[in-house]
Amino acid sequence: MYTTYHFSSAQELNSDIIDPIKTAFQSKPITIIIEEDTNGYELTTEMKSVLTERVQEEESTYLTGKESIDQLKEKYAV
Prior knowledge:
Low-confidence stretches: none
Mean pLDDT: 85
Shape: elongated
Radius of gyration: 21 Å
Structural class: mainly alpha
Number of strands: 0
Distance between the termini: 26 Å
Order of helices and strands: HHH
Helix content: 25-40%
Strand content: under 5%
């Protein structure tokens, strides 16, 4: 099982968070990881490369967001 808790500030943390964690995981081993949310999302080098390639494509080959989603649905039978 995997659970993520998001807080807008570390000041929101209090002892009340421990009880729900204990209830959810009971006697199972757990790992708690704390990380600072700097900007919410960072692009990898590969993602940046793909975006750069897309920007350089011919305008005549552009797909709308709807066309792109429709093609993905068709391809993966969703």
